[in-house]
Design brief:
Layout (H helix, E strand, L loop, with lengths): L4 H11 L6 H13 L1 H19 L9 H15 L1
Helix pairs in contact: 1-2, 1-3, 2-3, 3-4
Length: about 80
């Protein structure tokens, strides 16, 4: 049995912080192969994580434009 979109996004988010089991990884891959929306949302999560990691400590303060982009990305993930 595959993941629902909600489950897939939860697992995709968790995958950024912990290794997935083999079953989780395959179920997520299967879902992302079939669901364009979740595939895009998963990629957005990954890019957001990469951007956050790339920040230097002196860049921690976000501009209003950056905050707006983050809010838009989060709103997109909730759809």
């Amino acid at each position: 049995m595959g993941y629902s979109c909600r489950e897939a996004m939860r697992i995709a988010s968790e995958a950024l912080d912990r290794p997935l089991s083999t079953a989780e990884r395959w179920r997520l891959r299967l879902h992302l192969a079939m669901c364009r929306d979740c595939r895009h949302a998963s990629e957005a999560l990954r890019k957001l994580r990469e951007a956050a990691r790339a920040l230097r400590p002196d860049q921690a303060a976000l501009s209003e434009e950056q905050r707006a982009k983050i809010r838009a990305a989060l709103a997109e993930l909730k759809r």
